[in-house]
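Please go through the sequence and fold tokens given here and tell me how the chain folds. Record follows.
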Amino acid sequence: MDSQRIDKWLWAARFFKTRGLAGEAVIGGKVHVDGERVKPARGLRIGEVLRITRGHDVLEVVVRGFNEQRRPASEAQQLYEETEASRTRREAQAEQRRLLRDAMPRTDHRPDKRERRRIRKFLGKDEG
């Protein structure tokens, strides 16, 4: 096998849970091959570089193989190789999100009725 549909490969490589979700991501512009938007039926070849956007993460992977079926994750990881630049960028962004989350104020409980009234009054949404 020298090529495979991109939606099927994304599904087999476990980037998306279903082929339908993989196809929607491709149609929605979340997947680029060598810098270009593609359609789900496009043939994917070994050595091509994919840019996959999933939530906050943007992955750049090089296609290393194909698989007709969805196999275990350990086998699916052999179908691609993430570029070093992509890995470092993704880890740096994850660390930045973690630091921002830790900096946000949190309470140890939900506000009670009196506190909710004070919050609404402070926000200017007090009705009475």
The longest strand covers residues 57-63.
